Queue: 4 jobs
Job 1
Amino acid sequence: MERYASCHCGKLVLRCAGEPVKVSLCHCFDCQKRTGSLFSVAAFYPRESVALMAGEAKMFHRPSASGFDVSFHFCPDCGSSLWWEPERLPHLIGVAAGAFADPDFPMPQQAVWSEQRHKWLALPLASHARNPVKT
């Protein structure tokens, strides 16, 4: 199976081979600020399963709440954050699940950083106050 993720303007495209290793929802304040929403949803793929098919990305590197840095790659034209490289999980690439524009995309298996979740938001997922043990 192959899936394609793209930015809003379509100039930046990733090909992801196979199924994601994990799909995770994150409530941390950094993800809230990055997405402008209450959470982000990431599809994690093995590094070797992800290929840039079109475009050139800009990168933003920052520390994360877990204590490990993350490098975000985004479209320089429309600003969409398409994928990221978490130092905490160096063998994986996180891809913005919404960038697949697929309503049949697998549901997240867990929610992390639920201690920063908006209290009125209830989701049917296993929830961790912070990050769970490394996968």
Job 2
Amino acid sequence: MNTIKLLVITRENEADKSYGLGKTLLPFMQGLQARGHQVVYFSKTASKPTHQRWLPCFISGLRPFFGFTAPALAERLIQGIAGGRHASRIAATHVWLHDPWMALGYKWGLWSRGCFKKTAKVFISEHGLGSFTWAVSRDGLTFSPRMFRFLLALERRALAKADKVFVPSKTALDALSRDLAWVQPPKSCVVLSYGRPEAAFDQPIFEAELDYSLFGFATRPQVPVVLAVGRISPAKNYPLLVDMVHLLDQQFPLGVQLLIAGGGDAQPLLDYAAAKPLKHPLRTAFVADMNQAYALAQVYVSGCAIESFGQANREALAFGLPCIVPSAGGSGEVLSCGAWLVPANAQALATAVSSVLSSPTQALFWKQQAALEYEKLPTWTEILEFFEQQLLDD
């Protein structure tokens, strides 16, 4: 069997391995290594000195042309350049870029090493619900219409030159085609899903194993815990969940405890929650062992209506939690009948959460739905076989 040397280039850091993209990459890398391939993980952490040295210079150079977008673009260009240099250094046969903007810097990095001919197959992943340019605009970056069109054109060009473009769901591919004005997506575009998370049905975390201090609790909360998972960012729409809890405080006798397990700057969100105020103050925490968070919850909820996939949603299925998520985006495709899909507004979410918490029958129904849907999910073995085939495909 042909073996490859795959370089995985991402702007994630080590902490991101606990959830999100960083966590979903691990099974891919470990699975390929088990099949005899070499895999090198090149994160932002690996290139930290390069970022520290060059980021201010790149931002200064790009700001006159890209304005407020300059820092985000500079970060990705630098990571792409560092990745290209590393690809040349280790003689990678395949390169997997987890950001199309990094592709702009990747070739620059190769050229700086004297590599002017194609030395490796290049794969690009689009992780958002549509184009990367649109996705970052949902996450707080602002563009003029002219700049938006320009960045879309750069993205379209980068994808056209890639050997393969991976998207996590058919819904995401349809949105990408819309954004980039493709009548039909190129044959190089492939839906690459994720395997089902490890099930927790047969290996539950017992009460004695729970560490409440991770979330700032002295003991188990006396009210139901509603859990959300993921980095704290505009795209996750966590203020919607705060509004939901505010409604539940008025409708549900005991109130609920909202817990957000994810990293990021939580202070603006905490300030937003404090202004309500809530019966039980919002808790946020980054934890390396996400199983602790799932085991503490009675209900899992998401406020993100633009998920292209949402692996955290599937992890909640694996724990048999009643899952309540917005019906928009790729959630319906990814979760199917395993979750309660509702409109992305506070009242709809609050009504569903209240129904589950008030009715043992409802709670049991959605736990059973989660378990049934979990069994239908593709295994990582199936996903890895498909992925390996895509890498080796000539």
Job 3
Amino acid sequence: MKIAVTYENGQIFQHFGHTAQFKMYEVEDGTIVNAEVVDTMGSGHGALIGFLQTNGVEILICGGIGGGAQMALAQAGIRLFGGVAGSADAAVEALLAQKLVYNPAVRCDHHDHEHGEGGHTCGSHSCH
């Protein structure tokens, strides 16, 4: 099984449509057998979902994600665990232990997070 996590400096990146990197985990028999950080080479949920499909990803863990991206993931057969924050590695370990806390109703315009200029909600700009 392949799991992808939106990634920045060891943490779960909070804007799915703008993530520049994923940390990809290969899991066999409930154990991580390989993990690597990969550049997405694109932005916008369409390009990113295509990237995930091409790489055989079955599960995505991320922070904020818009409704359009959620529908596209569902159509691609990729399970979504959204609304997650903190360490990427810890989130995957929690998922494998069936203890991951996530928000099944996550929407990009309802979460708060920090950017260099200070906190704001995703709804104050275009989110993909």
Job 4
Amino acid sequence: MSTISEFLTGEHHHCDDLFAAAEDDAAQKNWGKADDDFRRFRHSTETHFEVEENILFPAFENATGMTMGPTQVMRMEHGQMRDVFAQMADAIAKQDADEYLGLSETLLMLMQQHNLKEEQILYRMADQVLGNASDALIGDMKAMAEGA
């Protein structure tokens, strides 16, 4: 099986692709497709957040004793992105391309910074401290994602 880093970074790339598709649709004012693609992006990203928050973060915190460190920052950033998701969904409902694209730019910056911290710091730390349990954790994460 892959490492925690490889598995979760792959999910980031998948979510990024869905995000780009929704953005392209909104820019072209193809609102039906934008709505569908944004829903897929939001669902995939929310599922990714839930996998991290319910499986990875608790395992990492239990292994390291760090509950006020990187996982706390990641949870806070997930909340910020969820707020932007709600605003973007509203912009699609109003068919407001300017608002959607402005929010999309904000979200892109948030996601890039967030993903960089996860991929370069948290996931690498998780690989180190959870390496022996990585196959089981990845299995649990896949099962949760498939059930979502």
